[in-house]
Amino acid sequence: MLTKEIVSALCSNYGLGTITQIDLARGGIENLNYFIDINNNSTLNSYVLTVIKTPSYSGDSYFEMMELLKQLEVAVPSPLKDLKGNVFNYIDNGEKALVQPRLPGNHISSVEILHIRQLSKSIADLHQLPCQSVKNLPLHPRNLEWALTQSKKLKPHLTRDQKALLHTSLKRVKTLTDTLETANVSKSLIHADLFRDNVLFDNEHISGLLDFHHASIGYCMYDLAVIAIDWCRTKEGGLNSEFLHELLKIYNLKKQITSDELWLFKDFIVFAALNFWLSRLMGQMENRERSKHPDEIKAVLELLI
Question: Is the domain defined by 113-304 classed in CATH 3.10.50.40?
Fold first, then answer.
């Protein structure tokens, strides 16, 4: 955690005014976020200071990507430039930090079908943006090779049941990966981490899509699969068929889903669930303070295999 003095010093580079309140945001697995209220000539403005613990997949293209999204009126927080024109500032330990306006709204705790509809529309719009204008956007790195690498690190620490689930899941993803070489499936700019804690709602409308640090070029169905394992999950760990149907129906009204994509959607859900299960297991193994528990994703994966 940063001291008040460090936060104040970082924010002073932007000339935004006088800090009145600093709060560490709850959540935030890979990066640290601080909510900051600043008084500027008797006007109170709210910002988010993000300390980047894990580099963005988009690397140096991150700012250009966020500027494009803002210009195209996507509800995203666009990073501010400081008084010297820098997007990033550096902390003494070498970590990067950036400041963004705090968007209105809140994270939802209980998903209703109207939330699914809103999110499906937003992600369909995102998938049709002209991301080709952003140079050097990478392919989404969490592919089969990534999963195999993480699996090798984790295997000595897994139980027999976990190893069996991992083996079966990897076989399923290998089959999917082979099929994708000839299947009619679309790629675009994907968010790749659209869990509920990365979406803000205000008066039942999406007011913010947050944390584009996983954004990259990837399969559109992967984005929908990530939504499915969090937004469509039941209390028992399964998936709500009504929510899944609505997710695909509304998306298809704005961006047509091919027959191959529809056929492979369940495999994409397995792929997304495996990736996040592995990621959370790695966080648990490395004793990361802010890692999420892997069992909720494991429950989804077990019901899909």
Answer: no
